[in-house]
Fold these 3 entries.
Entry 1:
Amino acid sequence: MLRVGVLVSGGGTNLQAILDAIDSGRITNAEVAVVISNNAGAYALERAKNHGVEAVCLSPKQFETREKFNHALLTSLDSYGLDLIVLAGYLVTIPPAVIEKYRGRIINIHPSLIPSFCGVGYYGLKVHEAALQRGVKITGATVHFVDEGMDSGPIILQKAVEVLPGDTPKVLQQRVMEQAEWVILPQAIDMIANGLI
Ligand code: GRF
């Protein structure tokens, strides 16, 4: 059974997609052992509690220094005996010590077809604003392994989504979530849980 920790900062729709996929059997041999957020008000924490999953708030604001937070995060992750860490809209920089210890076992969902519209400054709605600004006709989402860079690790899965005339950033974001993110993130977890990657 793959023990999964999910790191979140916001609404948690990707977390919900994972939980629903486990319940429906689209993900097998995996369980979400803990959800950790830096944001006490993150609705993702409510989604975890509603599903009976341990929900933890661990924020840099709770510590005197970033180093102390980094150590606390690593200690917390280690305490759950995790096989896989999933970043689902987690907006805090992953400490190098965590990347080193969990190399090859941390994945992230990014709301574009990497290498387009990724890297520093490209997160959340900004990604879709940039895609519309550039005028691309196809965008999508990417699941990739996390390394020391920003959105730079090996790509695992991608799914394309059409950009439609009149799309606003919010409308496009919702379509990318529904048609791509909520499909390929559970799919990647199921592949890892069943030894396919
Ligand atoms: C998603 O758009 C995801 O692609 C990005 O952050 C957002 C998280 O949304 N990494 P949610 O918290 O899963 O609803």
Entry 2:
Amino acid sequence: MNLVLFGPPGAGKGTQAKVITEQRGLPQLSTGEMLRAAIAAGTELGKASKAIMDRGDLVSDDIVVGIIGERYDQPDCAKGAVFDGFPRTIPQAEALDAMLAKRGRKIDLVIELKVDDKILIDRVEQRIKESGGTTRSDDTPETLKARLAVYYKNTAPLLEYYKHQGKVVTVDGMKPIVEVTRQIGAAIDAKARH
Ligand code: AMP
């Protein structure tokens, strides 16, 4: 199964993707984590991406489509994957559909995690406090505002793209983590049954 976890920054996509990976063995494909790994490794890709990410802007479609395509061809994706933070634009979603179609596959399910802005800001402030400000240089209240604006402008319209394909299940991301996990699990099981 190929699954997209969809939602604004701080919605809990990463947390839930990790649970799905643990419970179902589908690898988490997070472009944000791949880009942070490239920055940590000091690669050309990392150097080119850091300033863009620190501003809260999007890295170019070509770059993220390229890294996802490479990652998806690894053997652990044989049964599918959980896409986390990708796609973030319509061209990325179209490229993903084309990439999967070439391999005789498709996106089966898009889980939308719905969370109010106010709660997103509280969550990211909490994440900053807990990490002592060390783990993510784009986790600042200012960058979060930029990332939210980018989300509403570039990414939120994607929901219509997937609704049009009849693939979206919406989950209340403000419920406790275990409840969100349970609802996502139910949506995956329902999809797997038919
Ligand atoms: P994330 O960890 O998903 O919040 O991503 C962190 C940052 O990485 C984003 O704010 C973007 O700058 C960049 N990024 C991650 N995924 C994408 C994507 N699919 N398209 C463009 N930029 C991305």
Entry 3:
Amino acid sequence: MKSTSEILSQKNMELSDLTTLLLLEDKNDIDMLYKRAYQVKTENVGTKVFFRGIIELSNICAKDCYYCGIRKSNESIERFIMEEEEILNAAKWAYEAGYGSIVLQSGERCDSKFTEFIETLLIKIKNQTENKLGITLSLGEQTEGTLKRWFNAGGHRYLLRIETSNPSLYQSLHPDTHSFNERITCLKTLKSLGYQTGTGVMIGLPNQTIEDLANDLAFFKQNDIDMIGMGPFIPHHDTPLAHSMGNFDDYKNKQLELALKMIAVARIYLKDVNIASTTALQALDHSGREMGLQAGANIIMPNVTDTKYRDKYQLYDNKPCMDENSTMCKACLGNRVKSVGETIGYNEWGDSPHFKKRLK
Ligand code: SAM
Ligand code: SF4
């Protein structure tokens, strides 16, 4: 059995090495893992953090994922879609605040009213920011035609989490009408269309093994992924998955540690990709996002959605920053980034170095 320092000093890692690192329990070993990940981050993507202002524009969703608080069958939430004007204002705010990019995220809808609405929005956002604001889309599975139209209208990055690379675990988390293979096909289409492509998984799902997580990392590598957005699974009280689980408080800290280990191993293994320190980390610990940066992440997605919509876009329980407006978020995050000795890449897109190399 190899020691932690032996694994961390290797040039390349095998699947069994990924598993060993994810299984680390000893505090000194885990600290060693984070330190190595931070070193790899410094060498490959630097210590500048890039902000993507996230606009959660609608909680209307045609899908019914068993873990998600805004799933179609959840009748206890009021559905909304933001007005075009409100979205344009949020994008303008992010641009003027010096955030180089935004993320447009929502429940999944493939109807033409929605896809056309997004296309128009993209064109207007690009126009009002002289083509300078980067736009990531996180709008679920769409047809090749829609993705092409959105790309031509100005979306250039797309985040589509595969949730897990284990097909049978995927199927257990979704109704039969949701297809793992179609999700993978969509991810491949995104790449072929020229999007900077991001994916990710939920960490600490019921019945997910450490081997599953190691396979997730291998999947990211095999598919030459540019950006990773992964975070801890957190139950939402109104979902079937939460009903099948015990008291989350009992394993919350373990969940956080596992998510941080995944970020660290991903950084060491994949090196030059962008990795987000997700809000879900902060739901588990007040300093969760700073911990994510120290474990190897380099992207933060401050919420720039109007506070009046935030309580309607709760994917999981205890989502943080519910009543902080965008200005408060900016100040708070600025301090958080400074507290770990890093700088913010204002007015820059902060593209993934992996993507730039892939294009050459
Ligand atoms: N509807 C689009 C989709 O599913 O790709 C984009 C929005 S969806 C809310 C974004 C991500 O939220 C999902 O990919 C999923 O990983 C995450 N998510 C949903 N419920 C969650 C939960 N209970 N805990 C942690 N993450 C969750
Ligand atoms: Fe809809 Fe996305 Fe939530 Fe699934 S994860 S129910 S597709 S918003």
